Amino acid sequence: PHYDIEEISKSKPIFVTPLSDPKPVSEGKNIHLECRLEPMGDPTMRVEWFHNGRSVTVGSRFRTYYDFGFVALDIIHATSLDTGEYTVRATNHLGTAHTSAQVRVISHSDILTETQNEAALEQIQFLEDASRHRRVVGEDEVVMTAPQFTRPLHNIETIE
């Protein structure tokens, strides 16, 4: 189809709502980035996503949307490798515009496992030390002798 471009779009791309930095997320969570782009309905408009300057490959973990000026990127099951700057670039016959956001994914290795208080750690280890609670249990010896009565027996009668 042939378009009369002057009638379709009279302005270069403008992000009327830019991307904003999402809150840091833990590994395995999803990330959603969105912005609004004008002019809407421009068939010559190309929208591209970049991560740290490299083109984002759309696939099972990266999904892009561009519809009626709504532009979005969903990152499914984020990993620490997804941390960085995401840029969306819009281009039509009159120009180019872009907007960016910083994404931070907290990896499981970012969880601190080293102690901040050595004295408290030593006290905890002392309290948890199982060796303090061990009892040495010797073998029971089996003695084959007749019982010895230490007190004399006396008669107990039961009245029913």
UniProtKB/TrEMBL annotation:
Residues 13-107 form the Ig-like domain. InterPro entries: Ig-like_dom, Ig-like_dom_sf, Ig-like_fold, Ig_I-set, Ig_sub. PANTHER family: IMMUNOGLOBULIN (PTHR47633), MYOPALLADIN ISOFORM X1 (PTHR47633:SF4). This is Ig-like domain-containing protein. It comes from Homalodisca liturata.
